Amino acid sequence: MPQLPAEAASVSLWARRKWWILGAVGLVLVAAVLAFFLTRPADTPVQFTTKKSQAKAAQLGVAPTLVEGSVEYSLTGKTWQALTDKVNLKAGNEVRTSSDGRVVLTLDDGSAIRLGSNSAVTLKSLDVKNVRLENTAGEVYNRVITSATRTYTVAVDGVDMVAKGTAFRTKNTADAKGVEVFQSTVQVESVNVPEGKAFFTASSDAAKKDKISDLDLNALKGDAFLKWNVEQDKQMTEAKDKLGVLVDIDKPALTPVPAPTTTQTQANGIVLSGSLSGYSGKFSWKVTGVDTSKGFKLVRSASTKTPVYPGDSAQFISSSAARSTSLDLDGGKTYYFRVCAYRGDSCDSYSNTVTLTTPPKESGGGSTITPGAVTLNISGSTLSWTLAGTAPNGFKVVVSKTQNPTYPENYKHYTSATSYDLAGASLESGLNYVRVCKYTGDGCTDYSNQVTYTKP
């Protein structure tokens, strides 16, 4: 038999060995796959990773932009480390301050979370559509950049405080658990807490528990933490013009102006006089040494002797108008009135308080009304309306800077006619919302549709 050359025999042997090796590797891989499926529990699904399953909800970043004193953060709630401006915080992190510490945490959207001393917060969710914090101790000031697509919630002792505007402080201390609203509104469960008010689910002052209460604006002027926050807000483009009731916090506390007597010289301030004619309050006031270039607010309340704006019902009177006005009142009630110098979104230089008590009215307050819809139209500044049913007691024209004004909070004019020219009303410039309702004698019914009027 002919013999292959040595070189050819070597190549043939190598070719055979290569196929043996590849066959052996293949058998090992098959055995491994079989072992995986034979040893895997029968009810364990095979996971296949896809791009879709790897996608995560977009998250906002949080950066410590100002750290003062002792401030710490934790990933687990057990191990704490010093917080610096080099740390990038994430959902689940906790931050706490000591007695000499305070910190500003800035979200990617520009919103700011500021902690006072001996305070703590947990970043529960930083989803771009759902920011959620938990104020676990002390006080947290929230300056929120408003968004139509994102909710911003702070929980205090299991109760959610949902921002509807921009500035508020939550508290979780031994004396109080709740929220103070400085600009716009915060929703606490089903309760909307407006600007200038507070709502506490727990309080050392029993009168403030589970109800809306007034903020003591004079007392806030001595709050160092709030003054520091206003300084920070004034450096933010979107916040400096939205300070709400804190706009004058850096000014000295106001001293009520006493009513003049026959033995004293009139001091600088506003002095209010008022009288009652039937169910109409008549008011006039004198001003000494006070800037009133932006007009006045006549504020009233049936619950507090020192009504304030914003917060309580208020009527605007322009600086060019006579320093007098009148207001229809409900029967059988005691009202407290003050006049203040309007500053655009707040008031100062409050007058003395005038108290008026109206006599009771008979049940129903007037002739019987036949229910029916009121349809309101506007042409230029002139309102006109038609109605179904009857309105024997006439109509109330109600106007507000917010939608769906009501009587008596937003009362502007009474008429027995079915038309009224808004050009003669004391309104704030800009967009106003207007409705008409049938007057019952002590209230209103059958509100019309809403129209808008822009005062030059």
Q: Could you characterize what this model shows?
A:
- With 456 residues, the chain is mainly beta.
- It has 4 helices and 32 strands.
- It has 3 domains: 62-233, Jelly Rolls (Sandwich); 269-357, Immunoglobulins (Immunoglobulin-like), CATH 2.60.40; 374-455, Immunoglobulin-like (Sandwich).
- 11% of the residues lie in helices and 40% in strands.
- The strands form 5 sheets. It has a 16-stranded mixed beta sheet that branches. Strands 19, 20, 22, 23 and 24 form a 5-stranded antiparallel beta sheet that branches. Strands 27, 28, 30, 31 and 32 form a 5-stranded antiparallel beta sheet that branches.
- Strand 7 (120-127) and strand 8 (130-143) form a beta hairpin.
- Mean pLDDT is 84; it is low at 1-11 and 41-55.
Integer tally of domains: 3
CATH architecture of the largest domain: Sandwich
Q: How many DSSP helices? A: 4
Q: What fold name goes in the CATH topology slot of the largest domain?
A: Jelly Rolls
Radius of gyration: 34 Å
Mean pLDDT: 84
Give the termini separation: 118 Å
Strand content: 35-45%
Features:
5-stranded antiparallel sheet; mainly beta; 456 residues; Immunoglobulin-like; Jelly Rolls
